[in-house]
Design a protein that fits this description.
The chain is an alpha/beta fold. The protein has six helices and five strands, in the order βαβαβαβαβαα. The protein has a five-stranded parallel beta sheet with strand order 3-2-1-4-5, with helices on both faces. Helix 1 links the parallel strand 1 and strand 2. Helix 3 packs across helix 4. The longest helix is centred in the middle third of the chain and has 16 residues. The protein starts with a strand and ends with a helix.
């Protein structure tokens, strides 16, 4: 069985993330979407919330070959644990390649895991979690930028952020 890992912070998961994940589900027998916990970042949502957010979206879409998990360790250690031979990363046109290439080379050296770069859907390549949060913080409409079930969670998190 060919297992792929799609890691990210997913804070929150966007329509662009879901597009890449769903495309992976058509390429690999099993896809692990892994919420990577980075001690240097201050996420809006807890790891548990992000995992549940992604599970809800993907369950609604009916994907049986996608598992959602989280890890605090190296993504290569997670890959070894589940038997994954490939990491899939979506690339936008904003310099993602340069940032991701270094990580891909390190992941290959550390765990022998290959990285596959999947170009973003041109209709979604402008979407990032950072932009989504900025739009929402300023009262903008995030319809289409995040899955329907994520928008109310984002609005609620922003209300709590202001307290």
């Amino acid at each position: 069985m060919t297992i792929a890992v799609c890691p990210g912070s997913f804070d929150p998961v966007t329509s662009g993330h879901i597009d890449v994940i769903e495309r992976c589900a058509h390429l690999f027998e099993q896809v692990h979407v892994v919420v990577a916990i980075n001690a240097n970042k201050r996420p809006m949502f807890s790891a548990r919330q992000r995992v549940e957010m992604i599970r809800t979206v993907l369950h609604d879409d009916g994907y049986e070959n996608i598992l959602v998990d989280s890890t605090e360790g190296l993504i290569t250690d997670y890959c070894a644990k589940v038997g994954a031979k490939v990491i899939v990363k979506g690339l936008r046109q904003n310099g993602d390649y340069e940032a991701e290439l270094g990580m891909a080379l390190v992941n290959k050296q550390l765990g022998g895991v290959e990285t596959m770069f999947l170009p973003a859907n041109p209709l979604k390549e402008h979407i990032s979690s950072t932009i989504v949060k900025d739009v929402a913080r300023h009262g903008g409409d995030v319809t289409g930028l995040v899955p329907r079930s994520v928008a109310p969670l984002l609005i609620e998190a922003l209300k709590n952020e202001k307290r």
